[in-house]
Specification:
This protein is mainly α. The chain has 9 helices and no strands. Helix 3 runs antiparallel to helix 4. The longest helix is centred in the middle third of the chain and has 37 residues. It starts with a helix and ends with a helix.
Length: about 270
């Protein structure tokens, strides 16, 4: 892998920042708001930002970069597909619960649903994400789609995944702004939540950077078995193997010549 130390830096940074986002979301609702509950009140609504940040941002971000982890290149492609799909499914479950929480809260308070740009963009992203997930399972996880079609759809799959992740980041920022406006929050509450918004942007930038670096891409299946993430190259292994092979061939030829000379000597003495 090219720039392995740089990759580790960005990976660790994204993981630390992702956990920080979840902690910030919990502090937001537990310290600055009414906590968490399922009672139709503000505490039920608070499940919405916590689950969105945990599932649709943190877990989804990890799902996007899981193929970039070099120590998984020795794993089978099917196993990595299952892990990739499993993380997406986990994020989907959390997002569905988050949507149920906010709709139940609105209905209990007689607040109209789908009244803001945040809700319009958010529901659009969720629907497109669900369609992306179902189509990806059919195309890439089930063994029915021809390899040629999989290869042709891969650029679309990657682009739409990154586009939806960017849509999640934008929708979250709109939701944070909307919540602060309705709660008329001032420092330190407002500063804390705005900081959360900035951290979400930085986390999204780290995920996109890791994903778009060509040198950090998982190698093709016919190459990945010879790849080593810590610096030794397949070329060195191939060179060593070639040297060993050439030595064996030379020794074999020498033994054959010696046998011929022995046979010739025996004939001459007979």
């Amino acid at each position: 892998m090219e720039g392995y130390k740089s990759f580790l830096f960005f990976l660790v940074s994204s993981l630390v920042l992702g956990f920080t986002l979840v902690i910030f979301a919990l502090v937001w609702v537990l310290h600055y708001s009414d906590g968490l509950a399922w009672d139709g009140g503000n505490a039920e609504f608070n499940w919405h930002p916590v689950l969105i940040i945990t599932g649709f941002i943190f877990i989804e971000g990890i799902a996007i970069i899981v193929y970039r982890l070099p120590w998984t290149w020795k794993c089978s492609k099917l196993l990595m597909k299952c892990i990739h799909a499993g993380l997406h499914l986990t994020a989907t479950v959390l997002v569905v619960v988050a949507l149920v929480a906010v709709w139940d809260y609105h209905n209990a308070r007689n607040i109209p649903n789908m009244y803001s740009l945040h809700s319009w963009v958010g529901l659009t992203v969720v629907i497109l994400f669900f369609l992306q997930l179902v189509s990806s399972i059919v195309v890439y996880l089930l063994p029915f789609t021809p390899v040629s079609i999989r290869a042709a759809l891969m650029p679309i799959h990657v682009y739409s995944g990154l586009l939806l992740f960017g849509g999640v980041i934008a929708t979250s920022l709109m939701g944070i702004t909307e919540k602060l406006i309705f709660s008329f929050s001032f420092p330190p509450h407002g500063i804390f939540v705005n900081t959360l918004g900035l951290l979400i942007v930085v986390f999204g930038g780290l995920i996109l950077w890791i994903t778009t670096r060509p040198g950090w891409k998982r190698p093709p299946e016919h190459v990945e078995k010879d790849q080593h993430p810590f610096g030794s190259s397949a070329d060195e292994d191939t060179t060593d193997y070639s040297k060993e092979k050439s030595d064996v061939e030379l020794n074999s030829e020498a033994r054959k010549r010696n046998l011929k000379l022995d046979e010739a000597g025996q004939r001459s003495t007979m």
